[in-house]
Design brief:
alpha/beta, Rossmann fold, 2 domains, 11 helices, Alpha-Beta Plaits, single chain, 6-stranded mixed sheet
């Protein structure tokens, strides 16, 4: 049977706050699926339920048809995860850290050295195998983290923003690794829409704990990108609600959505505003805008579907 991830009416409440609300999502086959949504949409909550780190208030999470809550060991036997960004003991080498994980995960002793060597080779860290992790860059540490997901030869890999906090080179390296894993089922959350467009074949988009759409990127783009223009603006500092409100009030701007802490996706009426005039207006705010780029079809679809952020 092909690998699968299923969420059936997944709901998670924290007191009066509902992080997930009846989420239904069925993913089958070997491919990479991007998991998108604004901050607080419920992405990490979903992944933590799928991997047994927290329990749902209601509903069922299944990996390869096995209920994670009732039989976690079986469900996760063929699944590897990287949730948020785990730290590695700085005094250990990659080989030592991965050897410890092999022991925890029950990898047969006679297979461990080959599994470790193969995993490090896949993430291009073989030459650093016996160097202490404490001297590594963040990107190098993340490559070792990704290598850790490969030790048990999983059918399903769940990654929570694997490129978060990395410099452009580190992001590119992790992106290449993820693309090489399409012979498995990879479920990857990200705020980087260009990255999802490049790496993934399908996308699931949630907001306020509810699934808005799950389809191929081509279908989502064709159906929801709509008319008008869309651009992404990067700022030197974090985008707060006050800045978003200022940009929203610019003439011709029809919607603004944070794609991450320092980027705003803007949709504008092309009948009212040209792109160069929009750039002048944003620069005129003197709010630290440092990049300005045409939004991709997926970004345009994202803007159409996400009406407002939490």
């Amino acid at each position: 049977m092909p690998p699968s991830i299923e969420a059936q009416q997944l709901t998670k409440r924290y007191g009066q706050f509902t992080a997930l609300s009846g989420l239904d999502l069925n993913i089958h086959g070997t491919k990479c699926v991007g998991f998108l949504g604004p901050n607080g949409a419920g992405k990490t909550t979903t992944m933590k339920i799928l991997t047994g780190l927290i329990r749902a208030s209601k509903g069922t999470a299944l990996i390869n048809g096995v209920d994670v809550a009732s039989d976690k060991k079986t469900a996760l036997a063929s699944c590897a995860t990287l949730i948020e960004t785990p730290e590695i003991y700085p005094s250990l080498t990659p080989k030592e850290a991965l050897s410890m994980l092999c022991e925890i995960r029950g990898v047969p002793r006679q297979d461990r050295n080959k599994r470790i060597d193969d995993a490090l080779a896949r993430v291009k860290m073989s030459e650093w195998a016996d160097k202490k992790v404490g001297g590594f860059s963040k990107g190098m540490k993340q490559r070792v983290n990704v290598a850790s997901t490969l030790l048990s030869d999983p059918e399903v890999i769940i990654l929570d923003e694997p490129s978060s906090g990395l410099d452009p080179r580190g992001m590119s390296e992790v992106r290449d690794i993820v693309m090489s894993l399409r012979d498995r089922l990879v479920f990857m959350s990200s705020h980087l829409l260009a990255e999802v467009t490049e790496v993934c074949q399908e996308v699931a988009l949630i907001d306020h704990g509810k699934l808005l759409v799950y389809d191929t990127i081509e279908n989502v783009t064709a159906k929801f990108s709509g008319g008008g223009g869309a651009v992404e603006v990067g700022f030197a500092g974090n985008v707060d609600e006050q800045l978003r409100a200022r940009v929203s009030k610019l003439p011709g701007v029809t919607s603004t959505t944070k794609s991450n802490d320092r980027h705003l996706l803007l949709k504008y009426d092309t009948a009212v505003l040209t792109q160069d005039k929009l750039l002048e207006s944003v620069a005129g705010l003197k709010a630290g805008a440092i990049t300005f780029s045409q939004a991709s079809g997926l970004e345009d679809a994202y803007l159409s579907l996400i009406k407002e952020t939490l």
